[in-house]
Design goal:
This protein has one domain: Glutaredoxin, CATH 3.40.30.10. It is built from four helices and five strands. It has a five-stranded mixed beta sheet, covered by helices on one side. A hairpin with a 2-residue loop joins strand 4 and strand 5. The termini are far apart. The chain is globular, with a radius of gyration of 12 Å. It is of the alpha/beta class and about 110 residues long.
């Protein structure tokens, strides 16, 4: 179970709802581990700056995690978290492993401008 202050996506229907009903969505799929937690924290700090983006977490080990891990964009990923940026319901960018604030902001600014 993830203990973040982000919107939690834990079912297939919740995943479908969040990406279909929001133009810009960032989902970080991981665990409560040392590579994932800094990304969750950064996402939470960016919510006020990027009000046009919905920031979500997803537990990699939950059944709904397949929505991220089975994407063509994440097939070669080996390190958690898998972070996917959705624009109008489609993957616009994807990263693996830890990302710092500047790297995340660069992707958001590029993909969700």
């Amino acid at each position: 179970m993830l203990r973040t202050n982000l919107k939690h996506v834990d079912t297939d229907s919740a995943f479908k709802e969040v990406i279909e009903n929001n133009e810009n969505v960032m989902i970080c799929c991981g665990r409560m581990g040392p590579m994932c937690v800094p990304v969750y924290i950064t996402m939470k700090t960016l919510e006020d700056k990027y009000k046009h983006v919905v920031f979500c977490d997803m537990d990699f080990d939950d059944a709904a995690g397949h929505n991220i891990s089975s994407l063509p964009e994440t097939q070669r990923f080996r390190g958690l978290p898998f972070t996917v940026y959705f624009k109008n319901g489609k993957p616009a960018a994807a990263t693996t492993s830890i990302q710092n604030k500047e790297q995340i902001m660069e992707i958001i600014d590029r993909e969700f401008a």
